[in-house]
């Protein structure tokens, strides 16, 4: 989940460089087209096209602005609308330029606006500062070549000016896009970004091993050890494991096609199953293991009250309080914990299941090591 929300979300320092390079041009294009084509027949296809893509852009922009938990890559859904409006707008302004009159100003003005907006988006980091220099030079050349005073310019000069203007609008966004080929600027495998933005990039600056990409077809050593243990100790239960949310389950499901009960859904807030339902699953030997994490909120089934139904004498099941990670334990082995607590265990996965500290079980940033405070509770009905 992220904090990207609010009416300025699409132009903030994280989301803006990912999607908003041509946003002002797109807005200018749709407003101008609707004004210029207002008196056309109701069946006017050009106006209908701008209405279609303008509606697409508006609906998604409003939804993102009023919702919470927006990942940056969600905004890719805006790309078709922005591309259509920006391209259609430049074509509309070019037609107006060729027609002559006061509307000739709109084409060079649109180019200048787009390059100026690129300066605004790139300014917090100056990531593409060298490209910005060339973008400004090309924009100035385009403006001088297309300005109304140059109405008698040769056709070749006008075409060259248009080409320079288009290049000026594309240079900086292209630089940011290409940066995603560098692991330093590609974001996390589950939340890709471009350029020096986002939590993953800033973490990687101080933790180079975090740059290692997650291998989606190969589980980590810790996940492999966990799956091996669960499969070996499964005694006919319907579910191999229940997880507190989808986040800790997806790594295991990618590794093996096993029946996993995902409690709480993606966010961890979905109230399923209820505490009595979870107790019934364990009592009827359909479920034996539950994976808990402090990275998602508790549900009725995973709250202290819900799992309190399953607490066994001599082996308390300590659950993390909301907002507080569970207390760390010493590097006990799984065998010792099972001997001390045969009916219900609390296991720090990164140590107990691999016999190694977290750094040896894949390193910071590797798949699975972000949940070093996860716990497995083994329960018998």
From TrEMBL:
The keyword Nucleotide-binding does not apply. Keywords: Membrane, Transferase, Transmembrane, Transmembrane helix. Residues 226-294 form the Putative mannosyltransferase YkcA/B-like C-terminal domain. Residues 316-335, 349-381 are annotated as: Disordered. The keyword Glycosyltransferase does not apply. The chain crosses the membrane at residues 19-36, 48-66, 72-93, 105-121, 127-147. It comes from the Bacteria. Pfam families: YkcB_C. InterPro entries: YkcA/B-like_C. GO terms for molecular function: transferase activity. This is 4-amino-4-deoxy-L-arabinose transferase-like glycosyltransferase. The lineage of its organism: Bacteria, Bacillati, Actinomycetota, Actinomycetes, Kitasatosporales.
């Amino acid at each position: 989940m992220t904090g990207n929300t609010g009416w300025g979300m699409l132009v903030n320092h994280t989301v803006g460089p990912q999607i908003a390079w041509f946003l002002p041009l797109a807005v200018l294009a749709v407003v101008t087209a609707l004004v210029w084509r207002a008196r056309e027949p109701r069946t006017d296809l050009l106006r209908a096209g701008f209405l279609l893509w303008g509606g697409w852009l508006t609906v998604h922009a409003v939804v993102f602005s009023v919702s919470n938990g927006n990942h940056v890559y969600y905004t890719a859904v805006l790309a078709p609308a922005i591309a259509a409006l920006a391209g259609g707008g430049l074509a509309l302004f070019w037609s107006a330029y060729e027609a002559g009159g006061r509307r000739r100003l709109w084409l060079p003005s649109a180019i200048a606006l787009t390059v100026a907006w690129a300066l605004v988006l790139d300014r917090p980091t100056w990531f593409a500062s060298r490209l910005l220099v060339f973008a400004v030079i090309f924009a100035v050349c385009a403006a001088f070549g297309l300005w109304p005073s140059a109405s008698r310019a040769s056709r070749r000069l006008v075409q060259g000016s248009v080409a320079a203007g288009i290049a000026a609008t594309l240079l900086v966004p292209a630089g940011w896009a290409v940066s995603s080929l560098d692991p330093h600027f590609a974001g996390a495998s589950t939340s890709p970004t471009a350029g020096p933005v986002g939590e993953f990039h800033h973490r990687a600056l101080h933790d180079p091993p975090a740059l290692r990409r997650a291998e989606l077809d190969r589980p980590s050593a810790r996940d492999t050890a966990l799956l091996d243990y669960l499969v070996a100790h499964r005694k006919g239960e319907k579910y191999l494991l229940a997880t507190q949310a989808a986040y800790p389950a997806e790594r295991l499901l990618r590794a093996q096609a096993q029946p996993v009960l995902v409690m709480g859904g993606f966010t961890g807030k979905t109230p399923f199953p209820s505490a009595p339902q979870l107790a019934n699953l364990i009592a009827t030997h359909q479920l034996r293991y539950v994976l808990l994490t402090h990275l998602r909120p508790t549900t009725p089934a995973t709250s202290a009250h819900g799992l309190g139904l399953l607490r066994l004498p001599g082996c308390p099941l300590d659950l993390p309080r909301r907002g507080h990670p569970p207390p760390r334990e010493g590097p006990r082995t799984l065998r010792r914990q099972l001997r001390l607590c045969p009916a219900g265990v609390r296991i720090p996965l990164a140590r107990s299941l691999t016999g190694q500290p977290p750094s040896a079980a894949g390193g910071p940033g590797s798949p699975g090591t972000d949940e070093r405070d996860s716990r497995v509770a083994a329960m018998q009905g």
